[in-house]
Amino acid sequence: MGTVIHGLSIDRAVNIGPVLSARLRSVGIESLEQLKRQGALEVWQLIAEQTPPEECVHTLLALEGAIRATRWTAIDQAERDRLVAAAGLDG
């Protein structure tokens, strides 16, 4: 398990598996509190800059779900659509 800087270690958050946890750490996100402060979209953009072909809608939604402490599939469709559009992933 990773080091906790402030609050819950990022690898203990909902929707965050080993691969996404490593990507979050690579952009300086160690805790759920850090993710909450920066926001899903901003953190997703940082990750996407490092691994552009691998980043997708599911990663963005997983980050938002982690912030809300819920599975990303439970996020209201209108909210998902808003995030996807804000990221420029809506086609």
TrEMBL record:
InterPro entries named among the record's database cross-references: TfoX-like (IPR047525), TfoX_C (IPR007077)
TfoX C-terminal domain ranges (all copies): 10-86
A Pfam short name: TfoX_C
Domain of life: Bacteria
Cited PANTHER family: PROTEIN SXY
Protein name as annotated: TfoX/Sxy family DNA transformation protein
Organism this protein belongs to: Actinospica durhamensis
